[in-house]
Specification:
The chain has 289 residues and is an alpha/beta fold. The protein has a domain of 194 residues: Rossmann fold (3-Layer(aba) Sandwich). It has 9 helices and 8 strands. It has an 8-stranded mixed β-sheet with strand order 1-2-4-3-5-6-7-8, sandwiched between helices. The radius of gyration is 19 Å and the shape is globular. The mean pLDDT is 93.
């Protein structure tokens, strides 16, 4: 038998509901805050936490990571706040669904301002990270490339950040292949507003074609199961990223499909090993070691 110490995990899980001006509806947000102590709190210095903005997958909602992974325990163990918004299958894109909600702008602007005004979280870029699974991975990549000033790193679980699996996406694989082969892609239509673009192939191509914009991107982590149904599409995007000279981390795990066991395992690994976490609360005014 191994000598394992008993652990007690304490955290606060808050369920927020508020009227979003950018969505035009009431929306839900889950917030996980580590406390490190039971609910009989001792007085302590003001603390701030690093933040993981965690985006859910298609047909899911802001509860899914809480229900299907150990994210609450991981948040406490790694001393990081986790904010889980609701997307209503809008692919974290402005104006994509029928109600016209600006879901990308909501996640990167309104939600950030609201949470920073009421929660003990850091507003520094190096303390903020964005992640998502499946559809949420596309949202995470979109946040990272369109608002690189907000995030120190981005984690894409089972996704590449470029959508190519729906009927309206049939042109995307051909576009990526042409770039990989060094062929001309100037005949593809321009994207005037990347916040409203759901495939993101052309906006990402434009960003990676600009050396300054490419250098400004946060650290990017991609991971996918070896039996995932979208692995072939993800690898097409990885070949495109290689051609464009994008620096990123990649891990493929054999035997895993598009599933919660994989996302739970890789989420924990990212928090423990990959993302540049302090694994401790931040005390304002105290010099960090």
């Amino acid at each position: 038998m191994t000598d394992r110490k008993e652990k007690h995990v304490y955290m606060v899980v808050m369920k927020l509901n508020f009227h979003s001006l950018l969505l035009g509806i009431h929306t839900k947000v889950n917030v996980i805050l580590p406390t490190g102590r039971p609910v009989f709190y001792q007085e302590k210095p003001k603390e701030l936490y690093q933040v993981l903005w965690l985006l859910h997958g298609g047909t899911d909602d802001c509860n899914d990571f809480i229900q299907n992974t150990n994210i609450c325990r991981y948040a406490e163990e790694n001393k990081i706040a986790v904010i889980l918004p609701e997307d209503n299958d809008a692919f974290f894109t402005d104006g994509y669904i029928q109600n016209g909600g600006l879901y990308f702008s909501y996640v990167t602007e309104e939600l950030v301002k609201m949470c920073r005004s009421i929660l003990p979280i850091s507003d520094k870029r190096e303390d903020n990270f964005v992640a998502g699974n499946s559809m949420g991975s596309g949202g995470a990549m979109k946040c990272a490339v369109l608002h690189p000033e907000l995030y120190g790193a981005a984690l894409m679980l089972s996704g590449s950040g470029i959508r190519m699996h729906r009927a309206e996406d049939t042109w995307v694989a051909g576009f990526l292949e042409k770039v990989v082969k060094g062929e001309d892609v100037s005949d593809y239509p321009a994207v005037e507003d990347p916040k409203r673009d759901v495939q993101m192939a052309i906006p990402i191509y434009n960003i990676l074609s600009d050396p300054e914009k490419k250098a400004a991107l946060p650290k990017l982590f991609f991971t996918c199961g070896g039996d995932d149904r979208i692995l072939a599409d993800v690898k097409k995007a990885m070949a495109f990223y290689d051609k464009m000279g994008l620096e990123y981390f990649w891990e493929e795990i054999p035997g895993y499909a598009h599933e919660w066991d994989f996302w739970d395992m890789q989420l924990r690994k990212a928090l423990v090993e990959w993302l540049p976490l302090k694994h401790a609360a931040i005390i304002p005014g105290k010099e960090e070691e």
